Amino acid sequence: MIFSIASSLLLGGVAGYGYLKTNGVTNDADKIQRIFANAGWTKKEDGETKTIRLRRRRKIENGMEYVYQLPLGFDRKKVDTDVLADGLNTKKIAFDITKVKFNKDILKQIKQLKGVKANKQVELDFDGMLKIRVYENDLGKEEWSDGLLKGGWKVPVGKTQQGKMIYHDFDNRKHLIVAGATGFGKSVAMKMMITSLIMNKPDDVTFSLIDLKGGPAFARFKKAKQVTEFGTDNTEALEIIQKVKERMDDDYRKIVEGGFEDVIEAGLTKRHFIIVDEAADLSESKESLRLLTDIVRKGRGAGYYVIYATQYPTAEAIPMQIKRNIPARLCYVVDSSTASTVVLDGAGAESLPEIPGRGIYKNVKQIILQTPFMSNEQIKERIKPFEEEKHELPRTPSTEDRKHTLVTEKA
Ligand SMILES: Nc1ncnc2c1ncn2[C@@H]1O[C@H](COP(=O)(O)OP(=O)(O)OP(=O)(O)O)[C@@H](O)[C@H]1O
């Protein structure tokens, strides 16, 4: 019979409990306290070393939440989730009990057993108190279902460790930066978002899709009536961005002339999305970037929303003006804390488990989640009703089409 027993329990039961108890390593709260002390996450006050104080703990879905009071002036940025997770993931020992001999050599036999690491996940939160959430099991993958749709301009971005689906509401948070190393789920997420928006608002949404990787991800949407522009290189990108900017300026001027602050107050139902995949390549064209930055700034009010995606999160690929105007970020696994800092203004995404679709969504707070997986077949089925023959996709809608976009009505 094969058993898997956490080493602390097994040793506690057999022999080592006394040692662990005197060293205080018997539960996660104790371990957290010790990790803080050993990692030097403390603060000197009147010559005394102060550390965190546990105020309360509570059971949450799939784990425990520990709430700590921090010493005055403590820099919480030095708390590292990786170090915490390493400390909390005690080795588990898998052993065949029929082969264990209960004699004086039992400790020797235990030492020879191979350890298997636990898979606890750690999440930090701060609201005056430091909250450390320790989850017992990994999130796992999340399959797509149409029941996830909430309507409006909301798209699902992922399920949290506590089983809650998080939505990005474009009318509320506007634009979005999507980043992550190659193969970790950016294209899947963006295709799911495009499909969700089409399903939510088939008559009101339009898209300019710019796929600077040559079109493999977005080509499947080319025939959808909602896709008004499609480009795959920098020349086409510039042409599209110029036209969209003209249109946006025109729309924005009318909104302001109507005495409204933005598209929502003006009661306008149409929204346009400019989605750029491999936006790092856009930085080769200064003019494209300049115009896109302008769209990002004014688009908030005009109902022109940008999704800016890159697999190379560097300061050049995500210029400061873009970052400043796009507070919402969705970051999948990246290869360094520097890359994570470019996207999220802090480390974290470099230590996500290497699971496609596992990311950190930063809106007001940062949250770890798993993006639902919508397969290409599922996309095809959902997009088919909206496909139409297009001889040549116009880079920008005709004036005739645009007449519909600005009939301002009071909300
Ligand atoms: N949310 C997800 N759930 C499950 N599997 C996923 C998810 N996202 C991506 N994958 C898997 O990972 C593969 C690569 O994902 P995707 O094409 O989105 O990567 P990418 O980040 O866009 O890479 P690149 O930058 O090279 O285009 C997918 O084909 C799919 O098998």
Amino- and carboxy-terminal Cα gap: 68 Å
The fold-level CATH name of the largest domain is Rossmann fold
**What share of the residues lie within helices?**
25-40%
* Whole-number mean pLDDT: 84
What share of the residues does DSSP label as strand, in percent? 25-35%
Number of strands: 19
List low-confidence stretches. Answer: 1-25, 395-411
What ligand species are in this complex?
Answer: adenosine-5'-triphosphate
Radius of gyration: 26 Å
CATH superfamily caption of the largest domain:
P-loop containing nucleotide triphosphate hydrolases
User: What is the molecular shape?
Assistant: elongated
Write out the strand line-up for the largest beta sheet, numbering strands in chain order: 11-10-19-18-17-12-16-15-13-14
Going by CATH, the architecture of the largest domain would be: 3-Layer(aba) Sandwich
- Counting copies of identical and different chains, the oligomeric state is single chain
Summarize the main sheet: 10 strands, mixed
Instruction: Supply the helix-strand structural class.
Output: alpha/beta
- Name of the top-level CATH class of the largest domain: Alpha Beta
**SS field, number of helical segments:** 13
Number of domains: 2
